[in-house]
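Tutorial, part two.
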Amino acid sequence: MQRKLVLEFILFGIAGGIGFVVDAAVLYGLAPAFGPFTARIASFLAAVLATWLVNRSLAFQSRRSALNRKTEFGSYLLLMLGGGAVNYAVYSGLVLYSPLVREHLVLGVAAGSIAGMFINFALARFLLFRFPSA
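Running the prediction step on this input gives:
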């Protein structure tokens, strides 16, 4: 059981890495027009979509949510807002108070992503994808 949980966490981390790339790419694409704070909201939402797609087929492939895809994504998005709040708070604090992060927004994205990762894993694994597949 514990080995399976560790594997799910590692795969969740891989999905998070993919989400990080999506997050940073969307942020850098939108920040010049919308600023680093508004652009980060859009980039986070794009990352949530990417991680949901990867997590449901990779990290939690042997588990299910018992919801249809549309409802599952909506639930996943709402749950990811828990870690997302921590993520955005860390990112925002660093952008506001660190000239280095203001110059290289990807550092703030990385710090925020790591800060929210454990919360998001727990929410996804134990609340959404809680049923073993038959």
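The helical segments are 2-57, 69-97, 99-103, 105-128. In part three we will examine how such features are distributed along the chain.
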